[in-house]
Amino acid sequence: MRVAAWLIPICLCIFAPACSKQATNSDDILSIEDLLVKNNEITGWAYSGTGWTANSISDLTIYINGLADIYQRHGFREAAHQTYRGSVGNADHQLGLTVYDLGNETNAQATYGDPDLGMSAATGWTAGAGTAAQYVRYGGFSQVLAFYRGAYFVHLEINDDTEESLNILKQFALNVDGKAR
């Protein structure tokens, strides 16, 4: 009986962490920044600038100004952003990645479908990242890709409109989605 008395607490300490959601996630997401693509995680794409995080709607307003009210309507909790620099063809381009935590999947889905985000002419990416994904090509100038998974809404943009740049956006989206699963 004495053995059982000390064996139970030891077993709980060893096996209880394996039952938590965090422990089942191989990437051990501790913060929203952990969802961002790391420096050179995608070959040829490195950080450009320091990025930002917003933990309140007033912080978010500093970074995205007029669009912050869209995210506030849909349960904004926090966001993280990073800009990357890399090559498409032989030209240097920038790619922006922003991940928003909206508290729950209902809010993330509502944000994804919000017409104020300017994605009404989007093309669905059915075999892509997230629960649902879509992208818009802006006439040779830029592209935006957005998706949601769980409580997260993810927005990516690149200042180029080619098939190669769309594939780069998709690769970034798949990397983020793999971390959010």
Helix content: 25-40%
Distance between the termini: 42 Å
Poorly predicted ranges: 1-27
| Major β-sheet profile | 8 strands, antiparallel
The structural class is: alpha+beta
Report a brief summary of the structure.
The chain is 32% helix and 28% strand.
Structure description:
The protein is 32% helix and 28% strand. Strands 1, 2, 3, 4, 5, 6, 7 and 8 form an eight-stranded antiparallel sheet that branches. The chain is globular. The N terminus is likely disordered.
Q: Layout of helices and strands, plus pairs?
A:
Elements: H1 2-15, H2 21-24, E1 46-47, E2 52-54, H3 57-64, H4 68-73, E3 78-88, E4 91-101, H5 105-112, E5 123-124, E6 132-138, E7 142-149, E8 152-158, H6 163-180
Antiparallel strand pairs: 1-3, 2-3, 3-4, 4-8, 5-6, 6-7, 7-8
Defining key terms:
about 30% helix; alpha+beta; single chain; about 180 residues; 6 helices
